[in-house]
Fold this protein.
Amino acid sequence: MFSPDERFSLIFNGTIYNYRELQAGLAARGWIFQTQGDTEVLLAAYALDGAACLSTLRGMFAFAIWDAREQILFAARDSFGIKPLYYAQLPNGGLAFASELNALLVSGQVPREIDPLSVSEYLAWFSVPAPRTIYRGITNLPPGHWLKVNAEGRCQTAAWDQLPASSGSAPIASNYHDFVHGLRYQLDDTIRAHRVADVPVGAFLSGGLDSTAIVGLMVKSGATQLKTFSLFFNQAEFSEQTSARLAATAFGTEHHEELITGARVATDLPRILASFDQPTGDGINTYYASQMARQGGVTVALSGLGGDELFGGYPSFRDLPRLHRLLPAWRRVPRKLRAALINQLRARPSTRARKLADFLAHARDLHELASLQRRVLPETARLALLAPDARAQARRLGPNHPMLDDFTSELMGADPFQIISAWELRTYLANVLLRDSDVFSLTHSLELRVPFVDRKLLTWLWAQPTHFKYNARWPKKALADATADLIPAAIRARPKQGFTLPFSRWLRAELRPFLHETFSPASLAACPWLDPITTAQVWTDYQRQKDDRAWSRVWTLAVLINFANRRSTP
Amino acid sequence: MRALLLSPELFLAEGGIARIMRLYLKALSTITGSAGRVDSIVLNDHPGYDQRLARYTSEPLGEHIGCARHKVRFMAATFRLARTTDILICGHLHHLALAWLAKIFNPRLKYYLVAHGIEVWRPYTWLEQRALLGAQRVFCVSEYTRRQLLRFHPALAPTRLVVVPNTLDPYLVPNRAAAIPAPSLVGPRILTVSRLLSTDTYKGVDTMIEALPLVRRTLPLAQLRIVGTGDDLPRLKKIVQQLGLANAVHFTGAITDEALQMEYANCELFALPSRKEGFGLVFLEAMTYGKPCLGARAGAVAEVINDSVGQLISYGDIPNLAAGVIDLIRHPRDPVAIRHHVDTFAFPVFTQRLAAALA
């Protein structure tokens, strides 16, 4: 879209939920609107306020604006990274950018060369954390950042949204009752904003607290003939079918459910893997849920992503502060004894023991604990998997998260709950859950919206006292209490069950042929940055042992190897 | 005002901390003026008067005590002089507990800490925490160091942590009127200046060597000159050998100030892709010669290098480093703008900032 004077041209991916209220203010300042959509509102907001407009936007977005007069390209990404933005500086001084990596590759301007450093980061974090991508030379603009490029092609990036700064003027609840009341108001508000659409809006309903709360709030806010979607499995311990049905019945939704079996995943796997624009250890659940929603006649759906990060649903909220309290005592242990204990732990085959060794060897404060706890492979295991050159580079970078410095600066003065919450939001949610959700929902042309991942809600929550937000004995109690009138009692009382697919079983059965081929010498030959013997051993060990928890490491590697094989042929 | 400066060393070696502590001595002499007095106790330096001291002090000259690494002598001298001192400035966190104890014997004593970089980016012992809480101010060389102090000691009052960026020694600043040398006819020279210690491999000198083959694919005559010495030298030389760069990488070893000035003057680019710079004084030194600088996007380097004077790259990313070097050699920054940038770190500005922080 172009501005009337053609000074500004805008490319926009996403949705601005508060565009109607912004439109009124911008019109009052003299902008004559030609359309009724959010794209022109964004264009007008930037034309009138420049980068300052970013803090007024509520929604998910990645956009780029060319200012023909100033000869500057300005691009930005929403606070949480719901919508991606990738860019590459070209040898001729130009810049290529897109919201999908594949779009940059097919341009022919960017080499499809896998970056060994990104591989080493992927092995640590389940995905390649921004600002890297799996490809050398392509950068992922981090969430809450803008990018400016001048006519000479020089790039400058900066954060436009930082967590503590955004808690400025929110009123603080003085007691738990007021807090719950305030939270409910904020939840209703975010649901209202996210329901704005000119097509029917559906919802993912896994049967857990987060998705049930979303559906309950949607119904309460007036959604009728709501379509809900859930997946279930033959393995009862993974399936939340009963809870999902219970919630759907309670809210009177048109509920759709689908059985996902290992055999079906094995059949669909080539198609699923082909939709990965870079490797990820997660996302298959979103692939199927999105497919189902689209086939169920819905083009926009709401998801409960973000509830665990905001309300302390992960065990990390309980465990990391405990470990943190022990660190001073650990540092008083004589250095040689500490080294000996760490070596003992590293020598054990157990991943838990080796992860503990990482904590003890490298974590000096809560930030470093929070950084390390999301590692999929302990440092020794990661280094062992890498070929010598890649190993040397990974060793140089060390085991901590690449954004550690940025986050410690951003979170100055934050309390332990806020620190863990921010790490979960900025790393696992942004780099894994939201990225995968965007890729796999768009694979099925579904617009996925995430009402918990809302800047206004987070701003309010961030300012509230932590003891209201988090109860170690009852994780997500605040959310349950704020939606107590909506959530069926059986779901409120249920312990947390992650939305995990039964991969641990499928890898040993239906997906076994795929893995056998993936870990074969011929397949590993496409991965010069991996040590082929150690890598193949991971699969061999998994087949021999009965430790189901190792599935994610096998799967993470398998996706990477398959990705490299597919990328080696254009 | 009577001031006491505690330093790990001033003249024994040419480290970054020694260089900046000399300038603290000089600035304090200016601030206290003729009515005041500045005493100096140095842990590692030899006893006796060093000829170079005259550059950094003014009349009336206070006591200058070198303790030759004798810790008891250092402590005794500190307690003796601190009894009659108004302000005490610690040049290293390791000495801060002494200041804290000295205050018990002289309650009107105000003590300060100079926080340089990695020595304060870590958890503190109980004694260090107590001593930090008692400090009147902490002079942080960068905003990054200030944030690290708050990270590892959240109980510190943020207002007590003042950023006083490092400065350049006026005796080492080249004459502005001197012409900037023309590019080398041999080939572009990339200069690195660093300690070459096995404990300091984070300085990234090895990454610079590893990037050189990629640089030479585009600029076949590019040369890398490495100034400095230390026990990491054999490892670095081995990398050079393995990469077949014997004719392209030159280790100068430790050199005189005059020789260093020549190195700065004759290079096309200064590069130190370090992972943990608390400030990066060497970047400023190179900039006084109008040379563009390349550093890693880590630590406080972004506070010294901006787009108009150089480029930041990701630490450890060899292709990114090589691309940065090539870009800066092909598109050099304006030397006048680079020199202008250094003015914000000039010694008079430093003295003013220090005076304001002491007020």
Remarks:
- Chain A has four domains: 8-161, 165-313+424-492, 316-417, 503-567.
- DSSP finds 27 helices and 13 strands in chain A.
